[in-house]
Protein 1
Amino acid sequence: PMRLLAMTLDGVSADAGVQHGISVGLHLLNIVLLFTLAWLVLPPWSAVFAAAVFALHPMQVEAVAYVSARPDLLATGGVLLALLATTRGSCAGAVAGVVVACLSKESAIVAWAVVPLWAVATGATTFPVRRFVLIGGVSASVMALVLGARVAAREAMSGQTFTISTDGTLA
């Protein structure tokens, strides 16, 4: 769903420069989120170094360079928001961040396990881990069912071919 929303926003302009600018903007937002998170749990110079490495490391250059990889940027932002909310003690913010991440990219479902581990590792004493695990368990189960349905639908459609006629309808 977040991918479809992002691609709908891409339809506002067919200009590749605008679309690339959106990806760069999302990457910059993720850098700010990571820096804020690192600032809360690391010494200041370590936070600056962590954000600089995240900003400049070429490992995930495709996420910024290719519009088709935008779900990676959205999922990263969702996970970073969830970890930041966890550090601040907000269960609702953590759930919202993980949901955004999971709606952006299916592989972000692991964030349901990462967030409570982050809370324990950082000593976020005001974060309600039990409530998050309960909400997360139910939400992750629903998302796993949705993912299973998507896989089953893909399997059922494998081997079928679709063509788009000149009037834009599927045949």
Protein 2
Amino acid sequence: SAHMAAGSIVDSLTTDVAAGLYVHYLSSSPELGGEQLDKSGLEGGLALAYPISEGFMLGVKGKYLNADQEASTLGDDAVAINDFSFDAGAILRFGGLALGVTGNSLNAELPEWRKQLGLGAGYAFGTTLVLEFDALLDFDKNQLVPGRRDEVAPRYSGGIELFLDGSYALR
């Protein structure tokens, strides 16, 4: 069996600093090889963002993880995690062009929190059409290019948003 709960609260209207608080809880007891393996975890965090100017915004998020996994007769060791990490990002806007950068889990060494660098660009053609492109570099050991230990495998994506009648978005 598995149970998950999540909650968040965000305020971006009452002050210049936007703030969001979140918590995620997971509990699972999967059966593996005839044995039940109990896992549970709690992650919580606080995110803050501030517009330095009309075209430049900064944000940071601190996050905390507390998780436990029981030992099993299949050879899995008991695991207890109690760790803190942070993310940071920035957006720079020039007219319809927006450029963004984000760093995830910047000080973490846990496989549950992967160190990543995200880069993005978007261009808005008025209020009707937006083109977007981003790249994600995952510095987790499992995401490296096979056979090349020091190279990171990038992931690319893009999108188009078309707004019809000022109310309907097609993506």
Protein 3
Amino acid sequence: AFLSSKTLQDHRSHNRTVMEIAQGSERSTVKKVVLLLFLGLLALAFVVTGPRLRAEYAYLHIRQDPLDYENYRPLRKLGNAATPVLIRILSHPEPLARQYSIQLLARQQNADVLDSLIEVAEHDENKLVKDEAIDALGAIGDDKALPVMSKLSVNNGRAVEALAQLGTKGE
């Protein structure tokens, strides 16, 4: 005998269970539909919030060690999903953390961060951070940055270079 009687019995029992489920009452069908909808919504919620959760997790590591560039790597991979966290880092007390954040924001080429970068370029107390923000504004290349860059170019060579970069992007 190729199949033992125990295997055949298990197979029949499994088939019976499947048939009972398939022929189950309306109540069990409603439960199944509700369960499937719930699982689908749960999966959708993870897909939508998953990158944001990973960005927040990276932020926890950055708060513990803001000088370790490896802590910023997940944010680079997340792209625009990391933007809220990167903007939050712009107010971090450590200048290097702000610089890292600005570099990642510049890579995104996202015009939605211009106001934050303009604020840093105009008001940050650290010259290196200001210069990084100016470079980022030039790299993003949005005309909204022109008035600020013109004002900053009076006493900042980096702003002159970034302003020139802005001019070439419009061509």
